[in-house]
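Small ribosomal subunit biogenesis GTPase RsgA, pasting as requested.
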Amino acid sequence: MRRYGKHTDEDDIRSRPGRRNTRPRTNIRPKHEDAAEGMILTVDRGRLTCLVGDRVVMAMKARELGRKAAVVGDRVALVGDMSGKKDTLARIVRIEERTSVLRRTADDDDPFERVVVANADQLAIVTALADPEPRPRLIDRCLVAAFDGGLEPLLVMTKSDLAPPDKLLELYGALDIPYVVTSREELENGGAADRVREQLDGRVTAFVGHSGVGKTTLVNALVSEEQRRSTGHVNAVTGRGRHTTTSALALPLTEVGGWVIDTPGVRSFGLAHVDPSRVIHAFPDLESGTEGCPRACSHDEPDCALDDWVAEGHADQARLYSLRRLLATRERTEGD
Ligand SMILES: Nc1nc2c(ncn2[C@@H]2O[C@H](COP(=O)(O)OP(=O)(O)OP(=O)(O)O)[C@@H](O)[C@H]2O)c(=O)[nH]1
Ligand SMILES: [Mg+2]
Ligand SMILES: [Zn+2]
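Structure tokens follow.
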């Protein structure tokens, strides 16, 4: 079954070797010492587009990789035909250890838990100030996913020509997250790209957010003309985007170095996999205060030591409030 044509993991279950194959796998597995290094730019069903040196090579996963999904941003080892010529196919024989993982748990939209992007340094959480309306709970959930997965968050507020950013800035002020506000006019005069670019410097940044918030519009403003993708419209009646972008794609930033990864719009962001201690780790001012907490403290219960920690002046009340709000987003099932 290939729902939406992108669930390659299930295909792999079927292609596992049968019972007849009883030889130990380690003995038959070639070492692939001569494999080339590459990076996955996009995934379309079982076909993976990889950058190998300066060549774009189509590849598929070798059987020996089993169920493990290869995703955009993955560093991989390839063998086989790497000419990059039409109708050639290389094989991915190894997925290198990931430095970060942006993961979403199964939710109503998508029944599978999946890694969305690998090895991104930064998560640009894109929200429109209007059209569609900002949904702070989705922003919170993206923040938690970033903290959990080891990505640094960046808040990008688009469409400031339609509404001011004040309320959102107040809500996220205590978190001390870098942010950029952009408008239609600044998209046109290059100001938006300049300011976003300042936050990208040589790193790998994944752009996430609701459909129609302007992720692709912004990514297009950052990359060279021949790399641009199509953008959509926001439905005037429902206020929803049209899910114009259907696959994640990594694009190089030729001027400043690094990569931007455009992703399809999401309605929600499942967080059931998240470990609270990794979220607290993103709050070093509060983390040391948890030493006095009872075991397995939810940090939102009467015995939680963080209330005293704040009362004693070690950290700010607004920070504790923000941490508790983020931890609480894990429990909710709805996305926005
Ligand atoms: N007024 C205004 N419109 C904008 C701005 N940025 C983007 N848009 C418009 O918003 C619409 C949606 O933009 P996209 O870039 O396709 O949005 P997206 O987030 O990539 O959407 P999906 O691919 O569906 O997830 C387009 O009509 C853009 O022109 C802005 O700063 N101001
Ligand atoms: Mg898009
Ligand atoms: Zn606690």
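Note for the archive: The domain at 276-331 is CATH 1.10.40 (Ribonucleotide Reductase Protein R1; domain 1).
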